[in-house]
Design goal:
alpha+beta, Immunoglobulin-like, 5-stranded antiparallel β-sheet, 3-stranded antiparallel β-sheet, about 25% helix, elongated, disordered C terminus
Length: about 180
């Protein structure tokens, strides 16, 4: 049989242990950094802007979808683009844009490639269908939410891109 003083001591120890556990849990939450869900970044369009023998520039329209219940201010981005599993182009942008909460925004950026990457893709066009697989990999730079990496794969319609190149917007909005 336990003495009355022993029970009180046991209850006091148990209460103290639960209190310490509760404070530790709260302290852990206070120290954690809030990270938003990553936005989804996909290629909406690719158009040839201009080029010469050594370098070609493309206008990429990126669709940035925000799955969060708050807007995300984006200060800029950097990215690389692979087509058919091969490095194709890279680009950066520094035009600020705000992605609305639970919404999306279209962002025009310029991508640059060299002659080798350009020729490699045109040789591959005759071998496949109308769709070209892509991988878009990079980082959105946000002031308040830190940098958000993205890595997305998908397909673009190659022949539509070639037919419409040269037309449309003459000077891209640079991100």
């Amino acid at each position: 049989m336990t003495a009355p003083g022993g029970r009180r001591r046991c209850v006091a120890l148990l209460g103290g242990a639960l209190g310490v556990l509760g404070l530790a849990t709260l302290g852990g939450c206070a120290g954690s950094v809030f990270r938003p869900l990553k936005p989804d970044v996909t290629v909406a369009d690719i158009r040839l802007m201009d080029g010469n023998l050594l370098e070609q520039r493309f206008l990429l329209t990126l669709r940035v979808t925000n799955p969060n219940s708050f807007e995300i201010p984006v200060e800029g981005l950097n990215f690389t683009l692979e087509l058919n599993g091969q490095h194709f182009a890279r680009g950066v942008g520094n035009r600020p844009v705000t992605i609305p909460k639970l919404g999306e925004a279209l962002v025009d950026v310029t991508a640059t490639t060299g002659l080798a990457g350009f020729l490699r893709q045109f040789r591959g066009l005759g071998k496949g269908g109308e769709k070209i697989g892509y991988r878009l990999k990079g980082r959105l730079v946000t002031g308040s939410h830190g940098d958000l990496d993205f890595d997305k794969t998908g397909e673009v319609d190659a022949f539509k891109t070639l037919r419409e190149s040269g037309g449309g917007r003459s000077s891209p909005e640079r991100f």
